[in-house]
Amino acid sequence: MEIITGYDILIIGGGAAGLRAAIAAAETDPRLKIGIISKVYPTRSHTVSAEGGVAAAMREYDSPANHAYDTIKGSDFLADQDAVEYFTENAKKQIITLEHWGCPWSRQKDGQVAVRAFGGMNVKRTVYAADKTGFYILHSLFERSLLYENISRFDEWYVTDLFTDNERATGFHAIHQKNGQQAIFLTKTIIMATGGAGRAYKFTTNSALNTGDGLILAYEAGAALKDMEFVQFHPTALAKTGILITEAARGEGGHLLNKKGERFLKNYLPEKMELGPRDIISRAIIQEIISGNGFEGPNCAYVHLDLRHLGKKTINEKLPLIREISIHFAATDPVLEPIAVRPAQHYTMGGISTGSDGASTLPGLFAAGEAACVSIHGANRLGSNSLAECLVFGASAGKNAANYCLSAKKITIPSNKQINLFSKSCNNKIKLLLSNDGHESIASIRSAMQENMDQYAGIIRDREGLKKGLHAIKDLQERSKRVTIKDKSLIFNTGLIELLELKAMLKTCEIILKCALLREESRGAHYRTDFPNRNDQKFLKHHLAHKTSAGLTITSQKVNITKWSPEARTY
Amino acid sequence: MRNFIIKIQRYNPETEKIYFEEHTVPYTKDLTVLDALNFIKEKTGGEIAYRWACRMGICGSCGAIINGKPALMCSTFCVQLKQPITLQPLANFKVIKDLIVDTDDAMNKFRAAMPYTEFQKKHLEPQHETLQTPAQLNRLKQTSQCIKCMLCYAACPVYGLKQEFIGPAAGALAQRYNLDTRDNIKNQRMDSITAENGIYNCSFIGECSRVCPKNVDPAAALQKLKVAGIIHTAKKTAKSILKTPKKSS
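Above: the input entities. Below: the structure tokens describing the complete assembly.
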């Protein structure tokens, strides 16, 4: 097997966080060699689907402290406040940096970067580029990355295993899908920027790529995952396909209506109405549907998102993609009729446990973006904080990984024996997956997993359901060992890649369910009917999931509180 | 019950065999070509290779030749197509497997467009935003919509004959940065794209603009660049003529 060396930093994932990390590392020292390994071309990454905007205290009426308070309250006081302060203090700088690099932010008449309202944010602080903010950020970063001679790319390589010598993460095994070549990469530091695991759910806004690969690579190598029970459901996705309809549609003034034509949020969030946080609005929609106030559709029940009163001009200027998507994928022109929407899985709040410097619990391994959990989102992320997170913590991880390379006195090099052993075990794993002879299919296991997670680990949970869900996942993990892959080649063997992704998702599901079972309270997006209240005395803490000799082990970590004592979360 | 008939061009890199395979997919009125392909893949045990990700027309992964025309599979509806629906890999690229083509070369062409503003590579942490009016932003609206899906390369007859040609999307990208008020390297960029394999190779057939799913109109962008290129070269020549006496004296 080929061994690829010479890179100081290898970044797995080429979305906003990965690209931002690469540029930050490249700028720290031009002598550092940086590689971006992605299972797709970077411009395909899921960042591209983000719509509404990116948050920062941009204006004189705002401050990082205000942004921090909104974020912490939004998190139901589970966010680490030191991390949130670092985040809100650095967000503006990142937006201005991108502005200088050519990102086409929408503007006010006077030429300043425009800001819009977003859920859970008390003032207008969401910078945007029409309603294609993720697309523009991703392409701006990708294009900027072409400037740096010390950034190389390995497009369409799939990483199967991380390599650790007893002390640190030292590399990984990957398959080049174009030609089936397998290689071992050896490096000084790794940054995991692989996004979330939304595809573990059936009804999700996420792209096909979000399969939790990076989370499980890190977990299997010994890094801890944090806050995994917290999964965000976005209130408004197209009722049939789950395609995202941005929160900016409500930020610009859109209304949610039940079948009686009422703005039903008056019964749930009378002050905030459509600009409440996502967890509460998603639960309100489900409650309306349960109460019989939803519309009955051919596929599912739904509510209406009404934008008609905004007028054609505003919709075309500020929400052009929403109009395009609604017309194209739901045969609904929002200028003329309301859009049928319902909540869908949207974001993995949990992830690889890191500090603000991006360092994980495993030396040599950093993480950023949705794959990481710093934690700034706690139990519920506010809309437009995730793109900002990719920029702030992508830059931080890149810079700190670079400094780690430059300052570490002695970085251990794995022995040939260790490399050979690792190489053999990776090769054998792939061989085994290709030679399995069972009767199971990827599609049927995946579908069962997704339905199971929608049903038992969704917006409304309880002990009995979570236990059932966990039992089913265990069963599916066993079944996944008996999948036959007909194609035996390594060249774009999409069956093999899908099986590896499925295994990562099944493990992610197990961790989500186990953490959710342990958390016997309701906080943010984790709502349990058997424990409907928040319990700070017992559960003002993070759950950390580790792999130990005893298997999956869950421990606790205290929440860092700097300025804001937990209070009742009312809007 | 009505069905859609889907004919898929298969290619196995190990046997080097190209063949067509026919499948039927149950009719539903809002079925996309990608939905149909996913249905077939699940039913047949996951062998057919194709790329896809966002299923909402923004990631640019799922380009294919659908009934003879380059299009995104996720944004094309089966009911709007003549039956049988024929799926082939994008033209002008080497086929790797089934519907997957090698676009590495085309992806690399974006480098020649020098798609960045400030040239310095050292992070200066700018403190203040540059002002840009909505009208100035509007100038780059059209060319900035490109999702790099490569449909225009599959449609471009010039690229089909001469793979060194910079091509439509890279041209449009150069124009996008040229139009940006924050740009300060237009001269270097014009040097880059007017070089031997640059924009002048475009023969303005316009196929690229016809297949573009985001209405970027790369053909128009390339024509504008050609005009700008002539002016750029003329200015450069004039400058060097003016400079010559100094050198000789």
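Note for the figure: DSSP finds nine helices and seven strands in chain B.
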